[in-house]
Amino acid sequence: MKKLINSPETVVTDALAGMAAAHPSLSVDLDGKIITRAGGPVPGKVGLVSGGGSGHEPLHGGYVGYGMLDAACPGEVFTSPVPDQVLAATRAANGGAGVLHIVKNYTGDVLNFRMAAELADDEDIEVESVVVNDDVAVRDSLYTAGRRGVGATVFVEKIAGALAERGAPLAEVAAVAAEVNERSRSFGVALTSCTVPAAGKPTFDLAEQEIELGIGIHGEPGRTRGPLQPARDIVATVMDAIHADLPLAGELLVMVNGMGGTPLIELYGAFSEVSRYVGDHGARIGRNLVGNYITSLEMQGFSVTVCQLTETLRDLWDAPVDTPGLRWGR
Amino acid sequence: MKKLINSPETVVTDALAGMAAAHPSLSVDLDGKIITRAGGPVPGKVGLVSGGGSGHEPLHGGYVGYGMLDAACPGEVFTSPVPDQVLAATRAANGGAGVLHIVKNYTGDVLNFRMAAELADDEDIEVESVVVNDDVAVRDSLYTAGRRGVGATVFVEKIAGALAERGAPLAEVAAVAAEVNERSRSFGVALTSCTVPAAGKPTFDLAEQEIELGIGIHGEPGRTRGPLQPARDIVATVMDAIHADLPLAGELLVMVNGMGGTPLIELYGAFSEVSRYVGDHGARIGRNLVGNYITSLEMQGFSVTVCQLTETLRDLWDAPVDTPGLRWGR
């Protein structure tokens, strides 16, 4: 295992210290492992909280800021945040208009966020939750009942964050978050495994010319393994899986996401193939992201997330955002 | 070799097609391999052109846009653009106020940009050039006479781009570009090699617990090899090298740059160590970038670039920029 770290035990707090040093727009509680906007919650605005295991950066801490999250609570690498931590993040995000929990569908995350929501209720903080489950690759995986939550989380955080910034009430913010999730589908592919620092060895092994189709963001198994193929054929497999689940139609928001170890030159090549596929199927890409947005440590590979836009969703997507991981229009 | 590509022969044009599909703000000439701002040159504004081998994305094509470059001319992977290509980019960037060539110090790049400048002169396009040579690791490397040009290129493109956007004449834009280069130093470290698609095998080999200190962005050798150490110690070696060459003082612009295969969680950990080191040496980081800005395909590793700011340079750094790779304030 070759990693640029001090030790497996300190990898998360060291990164949080780096985020604190790099981004004056954030307030980082190193002991409590909570990232909030500097200046505290926005009075009267619905607060957005997300979290989950570390190792997926910039998700979630990198999406704290204007137009997106109010607080993030990162667990250890690939490990759910604990309920008290989620509760503390919920308190820190509460501007008096209630808090939306954005939860990726992993059993530990779902349980711990639910427990935190109950504890918050005891403190008279109103909480709604959306569970993101956009991965079409497998149903019931190593860490989930039902589908895993992956790339659509970025879309949910951005779009719900924009609506909250406009002053919408909690029920509406929760509804748009659920709508984005329902309209989104993802599928991922691994060329190599990643190595969890505390484990010290690769999560799985792939042969020299083998890839894993339908990989999860923790390296959990996908649908199948197959030979390495030209990008065009890999993309066709990915897009076929998405298209079979939610037919491509109309204007789409598409993310070609790197898993952490994939060079941008390859992601752009993949995006070209995705764009061609979408056009060939009578739809069009109205908005896009190409880059590392929800990663799996140093894994080589990529995922595609597709969201069927509406005019309202496009408008919310285009709204200003100012976070370390996404920034435009302000 | 495991790569998400169609073929080694098409990797650059496939990526350019992806950039064209992803970014309506860009105009991409696939045959000529030139990326310009959609809408053409800005009349009366100094045009900025940069280029070099592909494989360093988002550099340079990702920095074409408002407040930064007017045109980029990417060569094949790790291969200089040809003179005719640089000339075509120069023409495309010329808004009548002359063109600045931003050239990383590699022999092929320097020669081909110089030849293009002479050809442009024949067409009455005034060209000034700045050769970036910020890498303190080695003098006279595999591809260079003198120091290599690396991370400071990003700073030069941003800051000179901002001044050009304000309407400054060519001589002033060239002067600020040279000033940024003179005030900047870089040093890189590799944990793993990268593989050039056309070569099909790693550029170099490192043992399981070995790293290369002072690596170049094409995998060319650095100062020395040593054992993998905690991030704090690696960062100390990097910063010692920079500090010995240009003592840290005053307000700094610091980039902790990933080589392409390094997860963001590690880059933030490294930034924390850089921040501590800078503070311990009586300077402070006023502005920063943490992420993948000048990469070496899928290489794992990082580089640090430090620029001694002035008030003017900070103001130009903060000016609005709107490119695929850097975007803020607009």
Question: How does this model look, in words?
Answer:
- The structure is a homodimer of 330-residue chains.
- By secondary structure, chain A is α/β, with parallel strands linked by helices.
- Chain A is 32% helix and 24% strand.
- In chain A, strands 1-2-4-3-5-6 form a six-stranded mixed sheet, sandwiched between helices. In chain A, strands 9-8-7-12-10-11 form a six-stranded mixed sheet. In chain A, strands 13-14 form a two-stranded antiparallel sheet.
- In chain A, helix 3 links the parallel strand 5 and strand 6.
- In chain A, helix 2 crosses helix 3, helix 4 runs antiparallel to helix 5 and helix 6 packs across helix 7.
- Chain A starts with 10 loop residues before the first helix and ends with a strand.
- The mean pLDDT of chain A is 97.
- The interface between A and B is large, with 63 and 64 residues.
Short description:
The structure is a homodimer of 330-residue chains. By secondary structure, chain A is α/β, with parallel strands linked by helices.
Write the layout of secondary structure elements.
The structure is a homodimer of 330-residue chains.
Chain A: H1 11-22, E1 26-29, E2 34-37, E3 47-54, E4 71-77, H2 83-93, E5 99-104, H3 107-122, E6 127-132, H4 152-165, H5 170-182, E7 184-190, E8 210-213, E9 224-227, H6 231-245, E10 251-258, H7 264-280, E11 284-291, E12 301-308, H8 311-318, E13 321-322, E14 327-328
Parallel strand pairs in A: 3-4, 3-5, 5-6, 10-11
Antiparallel strand pairs in A: 1-2, 2-4, 7-8, 7-12, 8-9, 10-12, 13-14
Helix pairs in contact in A: 2-3, 4-5, 6-7
